[in-house]
Amino acid sequence: MNHERFQSIVKSIYAAVNELEKMFPGRPFTPDGHLVGSLGECLVADTYNLTLMSPSTKGYDAITKEGKKVEIKVTQSKRVAFRSCPEHTIIIKINNDGTFVEYFNGPGEIIWKTFSGKKLPKNGQYQISLNKVSKLYERVPLSKRIPKNT
Questions:
Q1: What is the DSSP string of 82-103?
Q2: What is the DSSP string of 18-73?
Q3: Which residues are CB-contacts of 2 (< 8 A; sequence separation ≥ 6)?
Q4: pTM of this prediction exceeds 0.70
Q5: What is the pLDDT of residue 47?
Q6: Where's the DUF6998 domain (predicted)?
Q7: First to last CA, the chain
Q8: pLDDT at res. 26
Q9: Which is nearest to 106 in space by CA: 137, 64, 65, 69?
Q10: How far apart are CA 131 and CA 103, in angstroms?
Q11: Average pLDDT, integer, range 15-27
Q12: What is the pLDDT of residue 121?
């Protein structure tokens, strides 16, 4: 895959969104739903050299060369949601220029433990803020993180 071309295409999507929002003040053109999820999963897979699974694979989105299952969470807001405890999770927020910030990269149990003793919401998903996630991330040693491509 051409990494530079892929990143350029993602940035052009967000540049178009920014231009539309300037043309129509007050009208949001924020990409959401499947588009954001798929873009984020592909950005993460490309950045961390992961193999993507078929969409909607239960419990994970990609695997490492060593076979570690990775759940990828992508947002443009301040929260992400979990249905189950992933083996490993990478959480990113896509910026409005098409780049992203990594908020978490580590064992899923670190996040899942924060839901212990809490009642499962009606929609079947526990939510956690990026603020809380980033604090948990400070405790993840480098040896437990999936390295980025060099």
A1: ESS--SEEEEEEE-TTS-EEEE
A2: HHHHHHSTT------THHHHHHHHHHHHHHHTPEE--TT-TT-SEE-TT--EEEEE
A3: none
A4: yes
A5: 96
A6: 11-146
A7: 15
A8: 86
A9: 137
A10: 9
A11: 92
A12: 94
Identify the band that residue 73 occupies on the pLDDT scale cut at 50, 70 and 90.
very high
Distance in angstroms (rounded) separating the CA atoms of residues 13 and 88: 29
What radius of gyration do the chain's Cα atoms show? 16
More confident residue, 81 or 150: 81
């892929």: which residue's tokens?
Answer: 6
Among candidate residues 145, 130, 26, 13, the one with its CA nearest the CA of residue 73: 130
Residues 6+ apart with CB under 8 A from 42: 6, 52
Question: How many Cβ atoms from other residues are within 10 Å of residue 70's Cβ?
Answer: 25
Q: What percent of the chain has pLDDT over 70?
A: 99
Longest dimension (CA), the chain: 48
Q: Regarding beta strands 69-75 and 100-107, do their DSSP bridges make them parallel or antiparallel, or are they unpaired? A: unpaired
Q: Are 37 and 57 in contact (CB under 8 A)?
A: no
Spell out the domains of the chain, with CATH numbers in brackets. Answer: 3-144 (3.40.210)
